[in-house]
Structure formats: C-alpha cells, structure tokens
Amino acid sequence: MANPSAVCNGHLHHHHQKQNNLLKSGLYKKNGITKGMKKNGISNGTPYKKKIVEHFEQAPMYVAVLTFLGFGVGTIFGYLRDFMRAWGLEKRNVAAEREQQKDFVPLYQDFENFYTRNLYMRIRDNWNRPICSVPGPQFDLMERVTDDYNWTFRFTGRIIKNVINMGSYNYLGFAETDVNALKTVTIELQKYGTGVCSTRQEMGTLDKHVELEKLVAKFLGVEDAMVFGMGFATNSMNIPALVGKGCLILSDELNHTSLVLGARLSGATIRIFKHNNMQNLEKLLRDAIIYGQPRSRRAWRKIIILVEGIYSMEGSIVRLPEIVSLKKKYKAYLYLDEAHSIGAVGATGRGVVEYFGMSPDDVDVLMGTFTKSFGAAGGYIAGKKDLVDFLRTHSHSAVYATSMCPPVAEQIIRAMKCLMGLDGTTQGLQRVRQLGKNTRYFRRRLHEMGFIIYGNDDSPVVPLLLYMPGKIGAFARRMLEKNIGVVVVGFPATPITESRARFCVSAAHTREMLDTVLNALDELGDFLHLKYSRYSKSSHPELYEETRLELED
Amino acid sequence: MDIKSMKNYLYWLYCQFELITCSYLMEPWEKLLFYTFNITMLVMVFYTAYIFVPVHISTAFQFFLHLLGNQHENTVSVLK
C-alpha cells in the first residue's frame, strides 16, 4: 500500500482529515485493525509530525540591569516607609495587634509582607477590578478611585462600557448571554433550581451528571469520566487519592498551584524537572529506578509524571510525544492537566492529545477544567473505567464536596454538543477555527511589531514581556484609558525580572477588536519602550523564503 | 516644529527615567526626596569634575611633556 504520508517538495504532508475520521469512528479502539492510513515510520526522524515553534527570547542585558535598578530603588523607599511607619511618623494601614497583646508572640510578621506593602500596594488598582457584565469579548467595568494611594477604594458610580476583554479565559467564546444559545440552560434552571445540597456519594448524583460524564468520555475518546464542582479542587483533591507515601511524583517546574498543592497533600516524594526539558526528566526517571526510595533503596510503588497541556504563564505546550515514549520505556504513569488546552488546541478542540495526533489511551489520567473553554465551572478526570470507578469511591472531592449544579452542567453539555457538532450545526468547529486564526494573527502581528512574546505559536495564551516594575502599572493603566482590559503579572507569580502582560485570545474577538488592541499596543510599545526583540520579522516573508524556490522545480 | 519635537522627545526621556527608576510609583513627597537626592549627587559630581579635572589634565600633560622634553635635552647635551 502506497505510503500516503509521502515526502514531496521537502515538506511532510500530514493528513488531518484522516486523523479525525479515526477519532470519530473509534476504529482504532475496536479490534486493532485500522482502515486508515498506515505509516511506515516517521520520515523526519522525530516523534513530532509538525515543527514546534516556541520562543523564549532573552532581552538585552541592559534591561535586566535596569530592572534590578528599579527594584533596588523600590526596596530603598520600602525600607524608608517601613521606618516611618515603625516610628509613628506615618499612619499604619496594615493589620496590627491590639495594645494589650503587644507582649505576646507576634501575630503578624512585619517583614514577610514587605513586598506586598511597599510595591504591590502602589499598583494595586490594576487587579481585582469589579466588572458588571458577562466577561465576553467586551465587558463593563465599575469605575473606582482611590484617595489614599490604593489602600482604600471607592466607587464613583460610573460604569465604563464596552472595554475590550483581553484577560478572560474565554477561548471559544461560550461566555455569552444570547437567549437562543442559553435556551436549554434556562429550561434546566427552571426544572432543577440552582442548589444540589449534597455530595456525590450521598444524594448529589443527578441524571445531569451521568449525562455529562458520558458526553465528556465520548468527547475525549476514553472509557469513562467523572466531573467535579471546582477545577482547582479536582487537582488538589484527586492527586492524594491516586498517590500516597512511597510513590514518586515528577512534576514540571512551572506547574500550577493546584497540582503542587495536590502533590504536597498526598505525602509522596516530589522531584521537579526543568520546564519541558526531556533530558532532565529522563535523568530523573533513570535515577529513580536505579536508586529507588531514599533510605531503604526499595523500588518506588508508583512513579507519576505531572504535566500541563498549556502552561498559562509561558504559553508553552507540553512535549507530549516525548513524554509518552519516556513513560512507556520506564513504566511510569502520566497525569495531564488540560485546563487551558481542552477546547483551545487541536483540530477539533480535543486538546493536546489531538494536537500531536496521539491516542488518548497513551495518557493514563486526563484532567481538565470547564472554566476556560466551556464558559462554566468545574473540572473532570477521564481515563480507563477502573480508574474512574476508583475515584468515585476514594476521591475526597466525591465524598465531601458538593457536586456540580445542574444549570452549569447543562451549559457544559450544550457547549460540548456544539463543539462535537451534535446540535446539527458546524458552529463548534467554526469557533475552534476562528480561535486558531485569531491566535496566529495576533501572535504574528506582535512579533512583527518587535515585542518579546513567549510560548508556542499555536497557544492562545500570549505573554508579552514588560520586565520593569514601573512599567507594569503604567501599561495596565494606559491600556484601561484606551478601553482595553489586560491582566498584568508581576513578581511572585513570575521570576523577578520577567514581569509580563498576559493576553488571552478568544474566538469571540472580531478582527476589528484585535486590530484596535494591536494599534493600541503599537502606540504604547513606542511610548513605554517595550519593543525589545532583536528578531522582529518583516511583514513580507516572501522576500526571505528563498529555499522554497530552489526545491520546487 | 523642531522645538516641539525636541520638547516631546525630552518629555519622553523623562517618562522613561520615571518608569525605569520606579519614581512613577512614588507619592509626590517621595518623588521630591528622590529627585533632590539625585540632583544633589549630580551637582556634587559636576562640581568635583569642574575643580579637579583641569588640574589633573594639566598635570598629566606636564608629565608626558616632561618625559619627551627630558629626552630632547639629553640628546642636545650629548651632541654638545
């Protein structure tokens, strides 16, 4: 049989359509005989079918020097203000003990909150902004002012309308208030009400949950799934059920707090490997198997690798094929947290597993959340039926936490049906395609303008590096003046020199909205001097692509 | 036109200085303190330069001249 994945013109052709047929008809699961294409090995020698383009450009050296200078000046003034507060020259706005308790063991450690008091408070007006509409592609903001430099706020009563939303995790645009779209949700709301008032194991399992779990399993192509009321709790309450003392957890450097919390609660030994670094991971696996547990040298009971699909602070995508081949070689388990990638990457929105063209059987535990791409709340864990049945009895979340409320479950059901095409329209696929187009357009324009952007070219999370602490506040405030809402992130969540602004592209953004944002960024980039990239590409790539001309003859 | 664009450029430079040294975040009295300190330091540096640099340059000049001048005198004395 001719090899359909032929190499011609130096480009490897990857047939997306055939992959989708395989996934939809489930042929690969039934009796091992596939009617689709057969590959006689990979032509380019790596497990990746398409090139991975990830950028982590380093800024010029003077930027790091100036960042430290800025932090130094901030620290000096922080010490000055703390001195003035301690000696009563200035009013104290932080929590303090009562006079009668001054001789007790101190309740508040003064120096611990140094950074919060002296740097975060000065730019605090850029976070926790209350909005008063649905967080779709645009939202309404309640205006607030401060009289004492961000220690207290008061609302003026005015509402800023139609601020372009570049911060919400609304990847597919399902956070909407359109009456037609929410028809089934309204019906379920009137049928069930809002409260469940019980846990899954007592009286909180509704037929809606069963329907939703079947749908999630079908969507992902696995045997069974279980849904939980809260995405953070899905990670932190289920990892302790899966691993315990005597097990080894290999967790990525930049994993989310929920994964770290779950790992610590479980009591297993945790070892950290460098971000997306497969050589480091392999070395840790080999050391674990050769040396075993620390003192007794016994074999580990279980080795589990914790990774995320898309890392939300970097925008990088996990190297799934390499991890799966490592896990098969060293017989470890894989836990994949697809919080940001489910619905957002992949040809039909089924996450990183589909993005790399792999089978969901390769991943042992598939976890994800419904908060980001489905416009609801909650999380799921999917995999083999044995795993999910085990979690139904042993997970802390199933035993003690209230289950998902029915209107939210219905919202997820309708969003998933739309994505799979079961509602009779192609709207789901259109949304996924629109997200892909918006992502590529946004990233390409930002690269051309000369900003430093981190992450994979296909990830809808776009971190734009700001570096200096003074620019964090200036950037967010000026963007709000131009009616664009952005999320900026600084020191504790990112390394100290790499503060950034994080944009989340959505399928609901129109080209005009993205152009407005890009023009504002262009102006602001010139004014704040943010265009540090030394590799900005021109907007006419044809002038550079000479190799293509040589091969096509 | 030139004056206007010059003024805009200077304003932009001042904004950059504010952002880099975090004085954008400071309250007005802190800014006053910071700028006073900086300007005092700069004035002291310039004053020191004004007083000492000419003396140092002329001493260095004399030193080098002395080196070259000495050789010339030696050759002249040998010839004599």
From TrEMBL, chain A:
<comment type="pathway">
    <text>Sphingolipid metabolism.</text>
</comment>
<dbReference type="GO" id="GO:0046513">
    <property type="term" value="P:ceramide biosynthetic process"/>
</dbReference>
<keyword id="KW-0746">Sphingolipid metabolism</keyword>
<dbReference type="GO" id="GO:0017059">
    <property type="term" value="C:serine palmitoyltransferase complex"/>
</dbReference>
<keyword id="KW-0472">Membrane</keyword>
<protein>
    <recommendedName>
        <fullName>serine C-palmitoyltransferase</fullName>
        <ecNumber>2.3.1.50</ecNumber>
    </recommendedName>
</protein>
<keyword id="KW-0012">Acyltransferase</keyword>
<keyword id="KW-0443">Lipid metabolism</keyword>
<dbReference type="GO" id="GO:0004758">
    <property type="term" value="F:serine C-palmitoyltransferase activity"/>
</dbReference>
<dbReference type="InterPro" id="IPR001917">
    <property type="entry name" value="Aminotrans_II_pyridoxalP_BS"/>
</dbReference>
<dbReference type="InterPro" id="IPR015422">
    <property type="entry name" value="PyrdxlP-dep_Trfase_small"/>
</dbReference>
<keyword id="KW-0256">Endoplasmic reticulum</keyword>
<comment type="similarity">
    <text>Belongs to the class-II pyridoxal-phosphate-dependent aminotransferase family.</text>
</comment>
<keyword id="KW-0812">Transmembrane</keyword>
<comment type="pathway">
    <text>Lipid metabolism; sphingolipid metabolism.</text>
</comment>
<feature type="transmembrane region" description="Helical">
    <location>
        <begin position="59"/>
        <end position="80"/>
    </location>
</feature>
<dbReference type="Pfam" id="PF00155">
    <property type="entry name" value="Aminotran_1_2"/>
</dbReference>
<keyword id="KW-0808">Transferase</keyword>
<dbReference type="GO" id="GO:0030170">
    <property type="term" value="F:pyridoxal phosphate binding"/>
</dbReference>
<dbReference type="InterPro" id="IPR004839">
    <property type="entry name" value="Aminotransferase_I/II_large"/>
</dbReference>
<dbReference type="GO" id="GO:0005789">
    <property type="term" value="C:endoplasmic reticulum membrane"/>
</dbReference>
<dbReference type="InterPro" id="IPR015421">
    <property type="entry name" value="PyrdxlP-dep_Trfase_major"/>
</dbReference>
From TrEMBL, chain B:
<dbReference type="GO" id="GO:0046513">
    <property type="term" value="P:ceramide biosynthetic process"/>
</dbReference>
<dbReference type="GO" id="GO:0005789">
    <property type="term" value="C:endoplasmic reticulum membrane"/>
</dbReference>
<keyword id="KW-0812">Transmembrane</keyword>
<keyword id="KW-0443">Lipid metabolism</keyword>
<keyword id="KW-0746">Sphingolipid metabolism</keyword>
<protein>
    <recommendedName>
        <fullName>Serine palmitoyltransferase small subunit B</fullName>
    </recommendedName>
</protein>
<comment type="pathway">
    <text>Lipid metabolism; sphingolipid metabolism.</text>
</comment>
<dbReference type="GO" id="GO:0017059">
    <property type="term" value="C:serine palmitoyltransferase complex"/>
</dbReference>
<dbReference type="GO" id="GO:0007029">
    <property type="term" value="P:endoplasmic reticulum organization"/>
</dbReference>
<keyword id="KW-0472">Membrane</keyword>
<comment type="pathway">
    <text>Sphingolipid metabolism.</text>
</comment>
<dbReference type="Pfam" id="PF11779">
    <property type="entry name" value="SPT_ssu-like"/>
</dbReference>
<feature type="transmembrane region" description="Helical">
    <location>
        <begin position="32"/>
        <end position="53"/>
    </location>
</feature>
<keyword id="KW-0256">Endoplasmic reticulum</keyword>
<comment type="subunit">
    <text>Component of the serine palmitoyltransferase (SPT) complex, which is composed of SPTLC1, SPTLC2 or SPTLC3 and SPTSSA or SPTSSB. The heterodimer consisting of SPTLC1 and SPTLC2/SPTLC3 forms the catalytic core of the enzyme, while SPTSSA or SPTSSB subunits determine substrate specificity. SPT also interacts with ORMDL proteins, especially ORMDL3, which negatively regulate SPT activity in the presence of ceramides.</text>
</comment>
<comment type="similarity">
    <text>Belongs to the SPTSS family. SPTSSB subfamily.</text>
</comment>
<keyword id="KW-0808">Transferase</keyword>
<dbReference type="InterPro" id="IPR024512">
    <property type="entry name" value="Ser_palmitoyltrfase_ssu-like"/>
</dbReference>
<comment type="function">
    <text>Component of the serine palmitoyltransferase multisubunit enzyme (SPT) that catalyzes the initial and rate-limiting step in sphingolipid biosynthesis by condensing L-serine and activated acyl-CoA (most commonly palmitoyl-CoA) to form long-chain bases. The SPT complex is composed of SPTLC1, SPTLC2 or SPTLC3 and SPTSSA or SPTSSB. Within this complex, the heterodimer consisting of SPTLC1 and SPTLC2/SPTLC3 forms the catalytic core. Within the SPT complex, SPTSSB stimulates the catalytic activity and plays a role in substrate specificity.</text>
</comment>
<dbReference type="GO" id="GO:0004758">
    <property type="term" value="F:serine C-palmitoyltransferase activity"/>
</dbReference>
<keyword id="KW-1133">Transmembrane helix</keyword>
